[in-house]
Task: structure prediction
Amino acid sequence: MTDISDEHLNIVRAQSLFSGLERPILERLLESAAVRTYPKGRLLFQRGDPAERFFIIVGGWVKIYRDTSAGEHAVLGVFSSGDMFAEAAAFLGGGYPANAEIIEDATMIMFESKRFATVVSEEPSVALNMLASMSRHLHRLVYEVETLKTRSASQRLVEFLLRRCRGVEGKAVVDLPYDKNLIAARLGVQPESLSRLFNKLRDHGVESDAHKVFIADVDKLREYSPYEDDAFERTVA
Result:
């Protein structure tokens, strides 16, 4: 196995793609994995580049985006610690469908697509996990479209925060990227509206200070905007 730490290994095992795999199979998948740290502003890959790797973030932030005809960035995803992305492109082959940029210094585990495909062809348990992961990805996309159409902006912000403290009870602290415009774009609101949305949530135990959000009671916040756990399985953008 590579020099992946126990902490990183726990993050890997938490992904549905690797869940429940026997130790020897997991070790095969990790043989070609590597831990890398990239600075803010680094372009990880561009749309059309060969999808040779997929990633699990262990710290920092990454945005997935496409350039519009107006020369702007359409943000498709904003990912942080514990999130996996680009695995769908890796499974399908061909090129990445969007660009990926480091928006805060990020450390991540990289997996080689070819190596993973080899193990999938030989190990049914990995193939089944891959199908489950793709199914959750599709479910997530459908859920996000539904959320944009049926949830208020405040509820979408709450769900964004809750996704980043899954499994936490009581108090929680969520670290945000420095550029909150990215979060606004991800939520489908104007940047100037984000502060007003946070102000609305004060009565629900949410305080925003610089680049941290303090949640007084995660369970109480869920009552404001309940969400489906399955829709928040970590998936690709």
